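Morning run. Coffee first, then this:
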Amino acid sequence: MKSLKTMNFNADELIKLALKEDITSEDLSTCAVVDEDVKGSADLICKQDGVICGLGVFARTFELLDERVTVEFFFADGDRVKKGEKIAKVSGPMRAILSGERTALNYLQRMSGIATYTSELAELLKGSKTKLLDTRKTTPNMRIFEKYAVKTGGGYNHRYNLSDGVMLKDNHIGAAGGIKNAVKAAREYCSFVHKIEVEVENLEMCREALEAGADIIMLDNMSAEDMKTAVKMIDGRAQTECSGNVTRDNIRKIIDTGVDFVSSGALTHSAPILDLSLKNLKPAGGK
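And here it is:
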């Protein structure tokens, strides 16, 4: 994933949709109590320890409401932050600050939560050859942000979407009439630049995928013992990936199997948010 600074053409439309979801016509509460020309500032405060991520999205949310809003950051994406620390100062028209607060925080808390959880799992794999991958189990319209958060937390991205790579799962294999047929059809249909990954559920399927010439073999929901056997069977003739209910509680067991990659949907679908808050809002020149 590229830096979010280079992805505004993708991110902007998604952020606008989120803002429209929260403001269908106007922010009644804010417009009722704050005049249009009043300016002020507020502090972004961290309420628990973690890895911060999504600062660019946070700032962009306010900018899309009013380009006069500025954000001064005291940390960068990927930094570890602690409870009580001031992460940033938001300044500009108070209406924009108040109206954008919730949407901006939603992005930042979600992305920071994913980066924090990813960092915890990546730490458990340190010293091994196994790399941690995300999946397509992302929140609709949040994939670009959530996969960026995984990379910020020390993980790696699997394919971005269905157009990004070939992965033959159980239903593809069933539709094709078997692993051999599925791999052959994929080779004939796709460009030579695409690798072909095959999902297998047991050692027999693993053998079939290897004989069919799969580039990557995903060992799905297999026992640690069977995964070890599969890795020995493959013997470097294909890359190996482990998947299926991978969490911080069982990821250590996977290291000993020798797989190249471990993918976890939990990175994006089960990571808790990192608690952050916009506080100390005051008019410009106020104390």
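The chain has two domains: 4-114+272-283, 122-269. Good start to the day.
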